[in-house]
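Incident log, entry 3
Record: Lysylphosphatidylglycerol synthase TM region (326 residues)
Problem: checksum mismatch between cached and fresh output.
Input:
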Amino acid sequence: MSKKAKQGFQVAFSLLIAVFIFYYLYRDLDGLALVNSIKDTDFLLLASSVTIGILGYWLRAWRWKILIETGEKSKVSTGRVFWALMFGYLVNLLVPRAGELARCGAVNKTESVRVGKLLGTVVLERTIDMGFMLLMIGLAFLLQGSIFLEIFGLLVSLPQLTDFTNSYFSIGLVILVILLGMLFFAYRRYRHSGWIGKVRQFLRQFVSGLETIFQMKKQFGFWSVSVLIWIIYFLMMYWIALAMPATNSLSIPSVLMVLVMGSIGMIAPVQGGIGTFHAMVAFILLFYGISEEQGKIFAMVVHASQMLTVMVLGGISLLLLPGKKK
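Fresh output:
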């Protein structure tokens, strides 16, 4: 099987999983209930959620620009970085995780920045986002600890978890040692070949991207924007919750919990978190007295507002991005 055929199969398989989860989740949804819920939605609050979401994307682009410019002689356009970011999000709707490479390619096409460094900054950015997500989970646990414990009790059996860890930890460790040994042998055997040199050069560029966190000058701005981005994520969710009658009584800690569960759903390797986001959000809303049907509708509205924004801005990026390096 050719490389393109394998990639096509992976994309199709991932999309099939997303469609199956979505269909399974919504197959019994009452269409009239969906229509009535949308009719009763406060579209001013919904539009406010979308607007502040666009601001969040712009801030993400500005934050990435700080990392990209660190160690570079020339400045990078925030606008071009923004459209590259939206192009990456659009690609993620088609091929999970491919958007990270796509946005690096888009910036490399118009700016004199090495792809290896760009990928390093993306990995760094994602690592920072994961750290903030863990902080959000910790905050949600402090505010909604009883809900966390109830979910843990429903989903996890401590004896089974202990048995699983004991059984597979040693196996995983042996496999890791074998893989590291194979990599070391391959390096020793082929270290003078041309492709090893290219790999080493790429890794040096990649590490230079990771090191920008220590070298960047706008430390305060970077970390302030990182905090603000997650505040915006919360406001996007909270304003839509206020916009819909079924969820407008949710408290701030409750919406934070919904945001955490939705973020976990977005991590799944399916296009745009389709299905997994909806399932996680609808599931957690059950703990706050929101019916399964209304929880699914809320999840659909939140997800659709984000996806339509990405599709529109990503589509515009296709028109604005093409160009030559400066």
